[in-house]
Amino acid sequence: LALNLLPAVRLDRALLPGMVAQGAGVVVHVTSIQRLLPLPEATTAYAAAKAALSTYSKSLSKQVSPTGVRVVRVSPGWIETESSVALAKRLAAEHGVDVDAGKRMIMDSLGGVPIGRPSTPDDIANLVAFLASDRAGTITGTEYVIDGGIVPTA
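RESULT FIELD:
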């Protein structure tokens, strides 16, 4: 909670009064698919904090959207960062396989990634930039899952 919920709450408390006063603004909270599909052996506390952030975000959107401030959530899946590549390399070394096989092990642990690759930081940034733009001016109170198809949707 101290890392994955409370900083967002504190930042919102600092910035929202100004946004509400000007009648415009966008808050983008980054949650995680872990809130829906936690990995009990590794990420239960993280998943719980991201679930709390998602619930807080939805509630906040109902509170401030009538003032002109939009609140949205972005819920990434596996993102190919330096640390995730390091994990793939470590798994590969432990199992005597190449790094691509290590990445497949991660994807398999998530139940598979239908597009066959993780998201990139740019993928996430592009979605956030769109949601923060005027082109998304009527979008509020919703969550965008960007995970390559990991989370089944209706």
